[in-house]
Write a structure and sequence with these properties.
Blueprint (H helix, E strand, L loop, with lengths): L2 H11 L8 E5 L3 E17 L5 E5 L2 E11 L5 E10 L6 E11 L2 E8 L4 H4 L22 E13 L2 E10 L4 E3 L2 E3 L2 E10 L4 E11 L9 E12 L2 E15 L2 E17 L2 E12 L4 E14 L4 E10 L17 E9 L1
Antiparallel strand pairs: 1-2, 2-3, 2-4, 2-20, 4-5, 5-6, 6-7, 7-8, 8-9, 9-12, 10-11, 12-13, 13-14, 14-15, 15-16, 16-17, 17-18, 18-19, 19-20
Keywords: Membrane, Signal
Membrane topology: Multi-pass membrane protein
Subcellular location: Cell outer membrane
């Protein structure tokens, strides 16, 4: 990408609270809330021919959450979220129901896996980031998924545990429809003094697009918040995962993230690296920076730039477009 585009990204970054869902119905035992976002996203990057290309990646998300009291201690829940992009069918991101109580929540349907709680440590950018945190299908948001989450107060500190099992069958996630049998589990401990850390493991038979050996993945994450600063790191060690549409027998990777809040503006930087350990090839290697300005709890605007350090010799099958820098301008309205 040319120097003019880099200069534009820097200039945009120098000028830079999602709203809660609105309750639309309630009675003595039940409630229904609606939320979502409208998000305009202009992505500038080089295409396969090496020419700069502008892509409209705008989207809208709508979610509906329901809750009803069953007994004094047990309640029922249901949640749906859909995403629409111009020219595409609606993507059902979440579609699940279950039970909750002091023990936590149990859901079945299309819902989050357990390792996303750990990638969230460093997946904090408005657009880029989370390249080294690619998860197995069974550990990510997927259908045919039985999931549990519990949060417990421990003398002012908080322990969150998650576990899920994906049943063999016609499952669906962001990568398409596939057949997989797997599970994941994770735990996170957040201390009152600003330190948090977590670990998790996932395993599955089958891939989103590949029929391979058993996939295995371990994550570790840590973060520290002090004043207006936030620092976080993520590490993964995996076997038989899918990256760039290829089966990678062994991989290791990490992501570092840092943010600084200055008034209503948040500045974030991340570094992502993921390698094919068997072949000593880079799969992900990038530095990204962004700035987001919150005009109020409902509206924000952001600029994000990714410096892509990959080249076409990094690994087999990588294309020129996947080695390009990217510059993104976005505006988001939450409701």
């Amino acid at each position: 990408m040319n120097k003019k585009l880099i200069a534009l990204a820097v200039a945009a970054a120098s000028i830079s609270g999602a709203a809660t869902a609105a309750e639309v119905y309630s009675d003595e035992t039940s409630s229904l809330a609606v939320g979502g976002r409208f998000e305009a996203r202009m992505v500038m990057a080089d295409n396969e021919a090496g020419d700069s290309k502008v892509t409209d990646a705008s989207r809208v998300r709508v979610n509906i959450a329901g809750k009803t009291d069953i007994t004094e201690d047990i309640y029922g829940i249901g949640f749906w979220e859909g995403e629409y992009k111009d020219g595409e069918d609606v993507d059902n991101r979440h579609l699940n129901a279950g039970l909750g109580g002091e023990f936590g929540q149990v859901r079945y349907g299309k819902t989050d896996g357990s390792l996303g709680m750990l990638t969230d440590f460093t997946d904090i950018m408005a657009f880029h980031g989370n390249e080294a945190g690619n998860k197995l299908a069974a550990a990510d948001r997927t259908s045919n998924n039985l999931a549990y989450v519990g949060s417990f107060d421990l003398s002012g500190n908080n322990l969150t545990v998650k576990a899920n099992y994906v049943f063999t069958g016609e499952n669906e996630n962001a990568n398409g429809t596939y057949d997989v049998d797997g599970y994941s589990l994770a735990a996170m401990y957040a201390m009152d003094m600003g330190l948090a850390f977590g670990a998790g493991y996932g395993e599955q038979d089958g891939q989103a697009a590949l029929n391979t050996e058993t996939g295995k993945q371990a994550f570790g994450a840590i973060s520290y918040t002090i004043g207006d600063f936030y620092f976080a790191g993520l590490y993964q060690d995996a076997e038989n995962t899918e990256v760039h549409g290829l089966n990678v027998e062994e991989s290791k990777g990490y992501e570092f993230a840092a943010s600084y809040t200055m008034g209503d503006t948040v500045f974030i930087a991340t570094y992502n690296y993921l390698e094919d350990s068997n072949n000593d090839k880079d799969l992900r290697d990038s530095i990204a920076v962004d700035a987001t300005h919150y005009f109020n709890k409902n509206f924000r605007a952001y600029a994000s730039y990714k410096f892509n350090n990959l080249d076409t010799d990094s690994t087999v099958g990588i294309t020129k477009a996947k080695t390009s820098d990217e510059f993104v301008l976005g505006a988001r309205y939450d409701f």
